[in-house]
Amino acid sequence: MTTSRTVLVTGGNRGIGYAIAEEFVAQGHRVAVTARSGEGPEGTLTVRADVTDAESIDRAFGEIEAELGPVEVVVANAGITRDTLLMRMSEEEFTSVVDTNLTGAFRVVKRASKGMLKARFGRIVLISSVVGLYGGAGQVNYSSSKAALVGMARSITRELGARNITANVVAPGFIETDMTDALPEAQQAEYKKSIPAGRFATPSEVAKVVAWVAGDDAGYISGAVIPVDGGLGMGH
């Protein structure tokens, strides 16, 4: 039986974030999600926030703390892609992705760490991607932002590890979401060929790993990168 915690999932209104929030609810936690639009799954508290705006994050935390108590588990999942080849990528396309995916995670984790330090307990989970370490053509901005989360988790581990606060990275590969569903059949088949498991993951397969690494059984794991990619990124 896991201890019931107050959990925040950023970008919890769709895709992997939605599945992560659902899993934490199913395990009996008090769950809040941030979303710019839309709603989190049933049983969650949805608060409006934009991870590129520190003030909106602070307001969201205030709402969550008032309603559910101090945040003990934070899952930094909010992210965007703006894929294009290096030669064509504008500086704005690079910096906007970094500002959401990397600096956004920093803003959320910094605000969450206040309560965690006070409680001498915290679980920080950063959602990266297989392309963070494996690379992806047309994804210089995205893969840079996702690779940087590894350094962030490891530095947080060195800084806060003695306070019973862990920071880990979960790196999903190809997941069945609206984004992969929109790919042409032939392209999906091509991708599946490169995955040893021969299939895409379901969002709930990622969610269960996130919930586990945030739970009581994983208290001595910190600074780790846990791939959920069917073997795609082995050794990366």
TrEMBL record:
InterPro entries from the UniProt entry: KR_dom (IPR057326), NAD(P)-bd_dom_sf (IPR036291), SDR (IPR050259), SDR_fam (IPR002347)
UniProt xrefs under Pfam families: adh_short_C2
Family from the record: Belongs to the short-chain dehydrogenases/reductases (SDR) family.
Residues covered by the Ketoreductase domain: 5-178
Source organism of this protein record: Agromyces kandeliae
Protein name, per record: SDR family oxidoreductase
The organism's place on the tree of life at top rank: Bacteria
Molecular-function GO terms, alphabetical: oxidoreductase activity
Alphabetical UniProt keywords: Oxidoreductase
